[in-house]
Each structure stands twice: as C-alpha cells, then as structure tokens.
Amino acid sequence: MTKPPKPKPLLQEADKPVRSRPSKPRDPAQPNLPLDPMPDRIEPCLALLKARPPKGDNWVYEIKWDGYRLAVHIEPRGVRILTRSGLDWTHRFPLIEAAAKALPVSTAIVDGEAVVLDERGRSDFGLLQQSLGGRGGKKRSSNAVFMAFDLLYFDGHDLRNSELDIRRHLLEGLVPAGGQGDIRLSEEIEADGDQLLASACQHDLEGIIAKRRDAPYRSGRLGDWLKIKCVQSDSFVIVGYERSTVARAGIGRLLLAARKGDELVYVGGVGTGFNERSAAELREQMDRLIIAKPAVDTGRKRNAVFVRPELVAEIEYRAWTHDLKLRHASYKGLRDAADNAAVYELE
Predict the structure, then answer these.
(1) Which residues contact 321 (CB under 8 A, 6 or more apart)?
(2) How many other C-beta atoms are found inside a 10 Å radius of the C-beta of residue 82?
(3) CB contact at 8 A, 96 and 145
(4) Residue 256 contacts residue 239 (beta carbons within 8 Å)
(5) What is the 3-state secondary structure (H, E, C) of 291-346?
(6) Is the pLDDT reported for residue 3 higher than 50?
(7) Any idea which residues carry the catalytic annotation?
(8) Closest alpha carbon to 255 in 314, 332, 328, 307
(9) Domain ranges in the chain?
(10) Which terminus of the chain has a smaller tally of CB atoms within 10 A, N or C?
(11) Measured between alpha carbons, how far is 188 from 2 in angstroms, rounded to an integer?
(12) What is the pLDDT of residue 283?
C-alpha cells in the first residue's frame, strides 16, 4: 500500500546533501532571495475525530501514532525539542536530539510524534510513559523514536503556506523512507481509506490519519487532518477512585469526568488496564490531591476517595451507554501536563 518513494530532492548525484549556499558566484544583477524569520514556536495542526475515512483522491493516509506530539527545531545554536504546550523537553529525548543534529539541513522545524514501539512495531503510550518516568517524571528516554510527518520550516523558508504534497516532498529528502534511526519518516499510504482502516484494526493499531494533499499547514483543529480510530481512546479527568482490598495498590476503579461547556460531568469509571507499576504511581499521585467533597456529582459511591480534578488519564473504550457512561473502558496511562492533552468534550 505504500507508494513508491519520490526522487530525493535534497541529494545530488554524489549523494551529498544540498545546502543553502551558492554553487557559483551570485550575479549582482539578480535580486537576493528573501529569507523568512524562523518562528520561535508553531501551534500544531490537530486532527479532527471522524467515524469513517473521507472519500476522494485529495486525501492521503498515515498510521496514527500514540505518543507525545513534538516539534523539533534545528537552529544554528543547536536543537530544541518542544512539546505541544511549548515546553522545552530537549533534555528528555537525547537520542532524538542527536539524530536531529545529524540531519543534512542548516535550519528546520519538523513536526512529529515521539513514540516507543513494542515488539510488533506498534506505538505504545504506556511504554513511552515508563521510559520518561511516568507523569511528572524526570527521566530521559533511552528508547523513544521520533516519527516525522511534516516539515514546517526549511533552510530559511517558512513552508506553512505550501501545500502538503510540497512539504512532504522536502521532508522525504531530509528523512528518507525506510530508515531505522531515532528519527524516522511516518510514511504516507495511498489506499482506499476503509480498507486501510480495516487493515490497521486487524493489526491492533490505534487507527489512521487522513490529510488533504493541497492544504497548507494551519494551526488548530480545522479539518485539514482527520483521525479515524479502531478503538475509541480519549483523555478524561480523574475525580476520584474506589478503594479495593484486592486490586493493585488498593484501586478498585477510577472515577472519570469529561467536559461539558465550562463544567465537568461524571462519565463512569475504569477498573482495568493497570499493572503494579502504573497502579502504584496512580495511588501516589492521587493521594496528594484528596479532597473532602467530590468535584462533580458521581452519585452514591461506596468506599470512594475524591481528588482534585488535576490528573488526566488516557482511556480506551468501546462505546457509550444511553446515559453517557463509558463502556468497556481500559486505563492506558496518565497524560503529562506538558502534553496539553484535550479532555473529552460532551456535545
């Protein structure tokens, strides 16, 4: 399903990277090509959730990665790796930083996702969290790789107004397809969207991303990029937990809430998906936030402990009940504040 690789525009016949320097003395009669100032930070383009893939030849697809959205800034003074909320996490991803320094480019901003892959090559958010020491941890990841999927700035030129096909063409020259380094290309797949989604689900992937070929790069969730998931997975606020004498770390069930306008609304609980490590980490963090009264109406709960609504958990689930409660929910991990994850919003 992967399309044949395009010619690499950044390589000469001798396979030497093309740099932004003149190959011969410039004709004084010709004007200088203006250079664009390099943005200090760019708000990311976000994918809009849809139930089915879009139709038409103007859409291309990628695998949906489950990790931390990052922007890698390559500058004359070094490399900066920024989270979705704009925090500098360069020190948290030393292997990605080193790989970025080795790319054949003077200045660039590469958009992508930091992931940890399991033994089957699938991105695993829980493994990524472990590699960073959990939510609020300070560890440096020794096994995260960066899946690059867009190029926003290249050798003095802002590419955001260029259509996706042009940005991808340049990106594939910078990060060749099929690489196995610490920065890899998230490859485009030309296929029927429904068939690709079925294949992704069959291989237990999270889903696919659809992108408009002719769209510029626009910050926000405007519909140029769409995400279609095999299993629903969203972020919810933890508002408490139910005690258990037999469950790991004494957590029988997490109590969860979603947003509805400016308020939080209880959407049920989750009692599966924990291991010894994640349950212990959860209990430690929640016990620092205990409050006397619940932040939302959870109904009558036995053995419930309520916490301030500050922790955000990624929850996988199959459906919603008629009264807007999660069905078949499973805990995946805590979202770090630096990830700026959007809490699920009820209609």
Answers:
(1) 268, 327
(2) 21
(3) yes
(4) yes
(5) ECCCCCCCCCCCCEEEECCCCEEEEEECEECCCCCEECCEEEEEECHHHCCCECEC
(6) no
(7) 64
(8) 307
(9) 48-229, 232-339
(10) C
(11) 7
(12) 92
E strands, 1-107, in order: 48-49, 59-63, 68-75, 78-83
**For the ranges 57-61, 121-125, 212-216, which has the lowest average pLDDT?**
121-125
- Its CATH class, for the domain covering 48-229, is alpha beta
Q: Which of 27-31, 156-160, 269-273 has the lowest mean pLDDT?
A: 27-31
- pLDDT bin (cut points 50, 70, 90) of residue 8 is very low
Model confidence over 74-131: pLDDT tens digits? 999 999 999 998 999 999 999 999 999 999 999 999 999 999 999 988 998 888 988 9
Q: How far apart are CA 182 and CA 144, in angstroms?
A: 7
Give the amino acid at 244.
Answer: S
What is the C-alpha to C-alpha distance for residues 271 and 278, in angstroms, rounded to an integer?
A: 12
Topology of domain 232-339 in CATH is: OB fold (Dihydrolipoamide Acetyltransferase, E2P) (2.40.50)
Lowest pLDDT segment from 61-65, 152-156, 176-180, 257-261: 176-180
> Which 3 state secondary structure label does DSSP give 172?
helix
> What are the contacts of 87-94 at 24+ separation with CB within 8 A?
87/338, 89/338, 91/140, 92/132, 92/139, 92/140, 92/141, 93/140, 93/141, 93/144, 93/146, 94/140, 94/141
The burial class, CB within 10 Å (0-12 / 13-18 / 19+), for 322 is exposed
Name beta bridge partners: 17.
11
Q: How confident is the model at residue 232 (pLDDT cuts 50, 70, 90)?
A: confident
Question: Mean pLDDT for the chain?
Answer: 88
What would the two tokens of residue 104 be?
């054949």
What percent of the chain is predicted at pLDDT more than 90? 63
Residue 48 has a CB neighbour count (10 Å cut-off) of: 13
Instruction: Output the CA torsion 136→140→141→146 (10° steps).
Output: 90
